[in-house]
Amino acid sequence: MISLATVSDVQARSPQPLDDQQQARAAVLLADASAIVQAKVPDMPQPPPDTAVGVVATAVLRALATPADGLTNESVGEVSRTSAHPGGGLYFTDDELELLRPVHPGPGGAFSIWTV
User: Fold this and answer.
1) How far is CA 44 from CA 11, 28, 34, in A?
2) Bridge partners of residue 73, in order along the sequence
3) Buried b (16+ CB within 10 A) or exposed e, 11-46
4) CA distance 20 to 2
5) Could you give the angle at which helices 51-64 and 20-40 cross, rounded to 10 degrees?
6) Is the overall model pTM greater than 0.85, yes or no?
7) pLDDT for 50-65, tens place per residue?
């Protein structure tokens, strides 16, 4: 299977440079993300839509930001934050998956309007 994005695509969307360990993890996550997309969007057009690179790179960046220990919630005093998706770090939102699905043409063809 062909990866839908590259480590360079992920790096270009990252706010800071990825170190060697993050680049290696990104490569693995890109393969996983591409497999997930293929499973969830089996009718994705070929070649993939222009949105595919950004969607996959964004999902990988989210996964890279997930703490390695799997911590999802943290509270210090009255401040709390959620730092990961409950299902794990690598996931796609419904909106992201929609960007990868084929665009179905609307109703077409000629029609008439009768006036009296």
Assistant:
1) 25, 22, 12
2) 82
3) beebeeebeeebeebbeebbeebbebbeeebeebee
4) 22
5) 130
6) no
7) 999 999 999 999 999 9
